[in-house]
Design brief:
3 helices; Calcium binding; alpha+beta; 4 strands; 103 residues
Length: 103
């Protein structure tokens, strides 16, 4: 969350969750903002292996990054995804999601 301070993250969360009803609805609002603003694809390193994040998906209980390496594909919870330096455009929305989730 180094890219934005708590007040800025809370303002982003407020924007994403305006008119939502409950935890799952709030997560869906944050997903929408991430999907709209995060520049994909981008590369990052997961467990020492370079992968390409192709897209984000809303799952039953989280937001996941769809990571690809060669013909292998795996979803990784966005809360656990290491971001590259520099972070891709729109990564502040991942910071907001992590702040909302208490990470």
């Amino acid at each position: 969350m180094a890219s934005k301070g708590n007040a800025a993250l809370e303002a982003m969360i407020e924007e994403a969750t305006l008119d939502t009803d409950g935890h799952e609805d709030e997560r869906a609002g944050l997903f929408t903002m991430i999907e709209e603003h995060l520049t994909v694809p981008f590369t990052t390193t997961v467990l020492g292996i370079e992968v390409t994040v192709r897209k984000v998906e809303l799952t039953a209980d989280s937001i996941a990054a769809v990571c690809v390496r060669g013909r292998h594909r795996q979803r990784i919870d966005l809360l656990d995804l290491p971001l590259p330096t520099p972070a891709p455009d729109g990564a502040a929305w991942i910071d907001a999601y992590r702040h909302w989730a208490g990470r």
